[in-house]
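Recap quiz, item 2
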Amino acid sequence: MTDLYKLTISEATKKLKAGEITPSELLESVIERIEKVEPKINSYITKTFDIAREQAKQSDERYKNHQSISDLDGIPVALKDVFCTKGVKSTAASKILDDFIPPYSATVVEKLENAGAIMLGKVNTDEFTMGSSTENSAFGPTHNPWDVSRVPGGSSGGSAAAVAADECLFSLGTDTGGSIRQPASFCSVTGLKVTYGLVSRNGVISYASSFDTIGPIAKSAADVAIILNIIAGNDPQDSTSVKDKLPDYKTFLGKDIKGKKIGIPKEFYGAGLNPEVGSIIKSAIEKLKSLGVEVEEMSLPMTDYAIATYYIIAKSEASSNLARYDGVRYGHSEIKNKKLEIKNLIDLYFKNRTVGFGDEAKRSIMMGTHTLSSGYHDAYYKKAAQVRTLIKKEYEDAFKKYDVLVTPVSPFTAFKIGEKLEDPLSMYLADVDTVPINPAGVPAMSIPAGFTSNGLPVGMQIIGPHLGEGKIIEIADAFQRATDYHLKKPKL
Amino acid sequence: MLDVAQLARIELSKAEETKFAGQLGAVLENFELLNKVDTNGIEPTAQVTGLTNVFRDDEVKNSGDRESRDELLSNAPEVDDGSIKVPGVFNND
């Protein structure tokens, strides 16, 4: 059985429980796969195969004694490199953290460890998760497994590419403005942006604190449900984490979705949408209709203001969050560099930050500093925060009428590496279909919906109400039981 | 642009200054469209959790012992007897 790396979590756990395979065998298959395809993909910043082998041995024992501890026991995972992992380098793909070894692990990392998951390593992202292509990384871009001359999307491009290339059975990413959904769409995998606060942000390197979410990227909606059961839930160390009692997300699988009401917001289907992408999404909607759902066109007028609202708030919060990186307590420092004349503390701050941050991080910090500075704060930040209230209300009202909304994830498919790097505005505008969701705080999933004539993946976005992950999983899972787009693999 | 970079503690070369000014200028100009939205009387949203005052009791939990302090300090580039060393704040020569 050499193709174990192709298994989904559900399939792997079945085989592990039946004693057909061991966690170590599964791990070695995935490691071999990583060594084979990594030169083309460049997902992994840090591989932790020694740790993984130790963890797998312990899992072997548990399965041998029929004492597996969770649905993720023995399952190999890759973590976006913004999750602090105790004793293991965590860089946020930035030079300013290129030697940072956290003295503690993020809550979600501990949850995965306690569930018996096997840590393969840390995967690539845009620096501090700022970007939509995984090109803004200090460790080089990750390549899309479906066409290695193209981006995997971002910022969780390392995660999405690794799942698509079977270099892990699942990954955890983060989504602040689309960073799970868009790479999932570009790489033909399933990615969930959760309700804000559903998963603890403790120990996760922050970009925009009122938008950041942590979520699974996996090979199916069924696998997403399994992962969500383990990672969701209140954490006393994250004061923004939800306190609600949560369901068993597996109970939303295998459902009949007849009679569900789906809204189609027309603002997502306008002039900027690539025609091939548009027609693939329309076919997917027809497929949903054939499963018995009721579909109705509707309108979310505030959508046109979402990009501006999102970016002003996100960059403002980012400038604040990145103020802590000065190389004094941790991170890259130029203090021993005799060639630079570091006379006093403020010189040190300037040198460390100038050397340590990449272009997009610098741009973001400067934009946020500007929009928060006195004289501009009301015109930009406060205005955006007010528009945010209107966007949030629009989604709340929509979900009084509809179970979910369906839209494209991106106006186009994966673009070429280098194509948008010198045009930040064009990169920002690429996020038009995903960013409205984060200011509203609601959940949304991207699932494979088809491929264009040149073989590039197209994802469909299913948006749900606050804490409505179950509604999304029901529909996504039903779609995946009736189609096979999510089963297709890239040729590597 | 230079004032903002100063506030952000980032040095820019002349070329970077021009490049970033152009790029950010285009971005902010695009975002002027927000002015078309009537936000009279609308409260700004700071967070979407609906939670307020998430506190815990003021009890000591993990007390800082020598081991975890050393762990925390192990990432600092220059440490002296349990303190982090930095260049003087007012040094000028």
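The first helix of chain A runs from residue 9 to 17.
The CA atoms of residues 145 and 490 of chain A lie 6 Å apart.
End of item.
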